[in-house]
Amino acid sequence: MNRANVREAVSRAHHEEWARVVAALTRRFGDLDIAEEAAAEAFATAVERWPTDGVPPNPGAWLTTTANRKAIDRIRRENKRDDKHKEAQMVYDADPPEPVGAIDDDRLRLIFICCHPSLAMRTRVALTLRMVGGLTVPEIARAYLVAETAMERRITRAKTKIKAARIPYRVPSTEDLPARVSGVLTVLFLVFNEGYLATGPDTDPVRHDLTAEAIRLTRLIRALLPDDGEVAGLLALMLLIEARRPARVSGSGELVALDEQDRGAWDVALIAEGHRLVRERLAAAATGLAPGRYQILAAINAIHTSARDVRDTDWSQVLALYNQLARLDPSPVIALNRAIAVAELDGPEVALAAVNRLDGALADYHAYHATRADLLRRLGRSQQSRAAYDKAIELAGNTAETAYLTRRRDQLR
Q: Is 83 inside any structural domain?
């Protein structure tokens, strides 16, 4: 096997096995720092040894075993310095059984640690992206538009706080789960978004490993809370977005906008499952249960995936749902997405006026400038459109999206 194939195998193993290795080590040693460092050392060892020894038949098992040895070596060194022989012995002793919570899944337990309410929301997301998603600190820093050193400190402080507070490594009990699930759903959706439109310029533009992991974990939470409308709504939303992934990036690596996608390439099984979940939530809403944010977003995506052609999209329904969502979540991003529906019904000039009012809140958001650029293009204001495209390209981190925006800008007269 040549070095290119080995590099590909290591990269694939990192995507598929990172969370499993970190979660298994966290469960055994009860320390996120040890788990993260040992996992990273195991992958570094794979980079060194696999080109010579070959890729093992079971890369995940090899990495877990290697990471365990690295963790034990670290604990030995620390225990030798501190003369903690009893702690060293614990490494070899069988761990005493501990309550695992409502479901026994290492990665789900890791999620609930990373999403603990004692941490700020941005810290929860960053820690989840690092510990569960396997993103590097530079990748996460780019997603947050902060310096790498600041992000490193944020993640380190979070791990220190978890250790100092002795936060248990388990899924909350069934009684405590509903109060904790909202924050977890937020984190899972942000992880999914990072996979669906990756922010790092040196990563794949679409990271299926992250979207698949977010969907898998959301399915587990739905199994715990089958009557929770927002869990079902988030799962439906993810499935309907993921269904479009095969048509989202062209063969040349350029983002393909929704109105240009080959709808025949969409995953019909995922769409059918997503539509079924949306219908279930609509039936629940008819009984007086008001839908939440994820349920409304899922319904919007159900409309898009129901249209066999972009011209068949029921924009009046889309706008009505955005109006409902804006009352529930009056955020600038929701207002921006609502303006796109307004453009289809009332024209680009009306939509542009609404978008311009968001400048103060979204000046550093690339999608704001991309939306302005498109509306200005439709109004024939090419010079202003070009400037808006330039700003969107400057702020966009995704390579496929940058390629798409560059082409649209260069098509201007």
A: yes
